[in-house]
Amino acid sequence: MNNNDRLKHTIPVNIEDRDDCYRLTAYAAGFPEESITVSILNDTLIIKGHADTDADAQVSFIKQEYPINGFERRLLLDNRIETDCISTRFEQGVLTVFLPKKSEISLLDLQKQMDLAIPG
Asked: Which Pfam families match (predicted)?
């Protein structure tokens, strides 16, 4: 496995469906908080991490199941997420991303709003 293969690692995530948001937790132990970025591009959530490792320390793994140099995870978001209001928290190697749900307005509520807006 060469160095480029290691950079292609992903990290495991859990996604919990809550009343007001989706809560994503990602295991990123060994990566400092400042090396992790969370961004959105074309309705895709992108989580990246990069760790500076000693270039002289060439490790030859027999099996490697977690990233040591870097990772990238992409998740497609649907239209029910308020992408402008996403927040994150990083504690003890676990990244938590809060993906708020868009408020759903029922047709009845929409009709009430329209009735109030139209002078009678």
From this structure: HSP20
The whole model's pTM is what?
0.74
Tens digit of each residue's pLDDT, the chain (120 residues)? 344 444 468 889 999 999 999 999 999 988 999 999 999 999 999 999 998 766 556 778 888 777 778 899 999 998 889 999 999 999 999 999 999 998 875 555 556 555 665 555
Structural domains for the chain: 3-117 (2.60.40.790)
Listed in sequence order, the residues at least 6 apart from 75 whose beta carbon sits closer than 8 Å to its beta carbon are: 13, 24, 44, 45, 47
